[in-house]
Amino acid sequence: MTHALCVHPDDNVATALANTAPGPISLLGESARSFVEAVEAVAHGHKIALVAIAAGQHVVKFGVPIGQATTDIAAGAWVHTHNCASHVDARSSTLDRHTGAPTDTRYD
């Protein structure tokens, strides 16, 4: 079983400590839960939703809102630029989900 780290009891996401496949992920740290069932692969260092997060709801990590869900996010889903807009980087939701390249600027 792989592991994810939840830093604060109010967090609704945890950070994958290794590349994960769908299935159970053991939670370390301050989560009220002991595991989450991943519904898709989550890359090492990326976030996984601990609970369902509705579109418009805050994504909470370190006990503080770090972004806002741009679509409904299922519990166990990968949380990244394709479904979350950062409160720190206004362009985050325009980045390619795999490469991080901007998709909002065209150079013709």
- Described by the principal axes of the CA atoms, the overall outline is globular
| Neighbour order of strands in the largest sheet | 4-3-1-2-5-8
Order of helices and strands: EEEEEEEEE
CATH class: Mainly Beta
Global structural class: mainly beta
In helices, the fraction of residues equals under 10%
Overall number of structural domains:
1
- Low-pLDDT residue spans: none
Task: Estimate what percentage of residues fall within beta strands.
Answer: 35-45%
The CATH architecture category equals: Roll
> What is the CATH topology classification name?
Archaeosine Trna-guanine Transglycosylase, Chain: A, domain 4
**Beta strand count:** 9
Enumerate how many helices there are, as a single number: 0
Biggest sheet character: 6 strands, mixed
Distance between the termini: 47 Å
Cα-atom radius of gyration:
14 Å
Mean pLDDT: 88
Write a compact overview of the structure shown.
The chain is mostly beta strands and 108 residues long. It has strands at residues 2-6, 13-16, 23-29, 35-38, 47-49, 58-61, 64-69, 78-79, 84-86. The strands form 2 sheets. The protein has a 6-stranded mixed sheet, with no helix packed on it.
Q: Which SSEs are present, and which pair or pack?
A:
Layout (H helix, E strand, L loop, with lengths): L1 E5 L6 E4 L6 E7 L5 E4 L8 E3 L8 E4 L2 E6 L8 E2 L4 E3 L22
